[in-house]
Design brief:
The protein is an all-alpha fold. It has 5 helices and no strands. The chain has one domain: Ferritin, CATH 1.20.1260.10. α1 runs antiparallel to α2, α1 packs antiparallel against α4 and α4 packs antiparallel against α5.
């Protein structure tokens, strides 16, 4: 396996791990917050994050990287911050999640720029297009999440 594919996969692993981190924040918040509107939006984002992880796994398979090694690398080598939210939990959680969503949108958009220089000589054209399409879809989903969280912040 080429260095380019390994680096690209490791970059995907960071996104994979941050999808998990976001879910941990949401899970913690849902234990403490009973607001129905908050629950509805957060539950949808949790579901979407699981879909995002599956999409990332599919990209890993397309570029012919071992999925178990990818998962292990993600959890072993990429740390996520531990949060200690105060009594203003709702606002703090929404602010933190908004940072994650902006990060993810920007990250997926920047990953698009790496496709040609890192993968074009390593995988076939159809696979390249699958990776490109998936990253574009992920960036769009994150853009929708930014809007959902921003809208929720305006209601609470």
């Amino acid at each position: 396996m080429s260095d380019s594919i390994v680096v690209f996969a490791r970059m995907l692993a960071r996104a994979y791990r941050y999808e998990d981190a976001e879910q941990e924040i949401i899970s913690h918040a849902l234990l403490e917050i009973t607001n129905t509107t908050f629950w509805d939006v957060m539950f949808q984002i949790m579901k979407d994050n699981e879909i995002h992880k599956k999409m990332l796994e599919q990209m890993v398979e397309v570029i012919r990287v071992n999925l178990e090694e990818f998962r292990e690398y993600s959890t072993r080598n990429i740390e996520v911050p531990v949060f200690d939210f105060s009594e203003n939990l709702l606002v703090e959680v929404l602010n933190e999640l908004l940072k994650y969503e902006h990060w993810a949108k920007n990250y997926y958009e920047h990953m698009l720029d790496l496709i040609d220089p890192m993968l074009s000589k390593e995988i076939d054209g159809e696979s390249l297009e699958r990776v490109r399409k998936t990253l574009k879809e992920l960036a769009e989903w994150e853009k929708m999440h930014v809007k959902k969280i921003s809208d929720l912040m305006g209601k609470i």
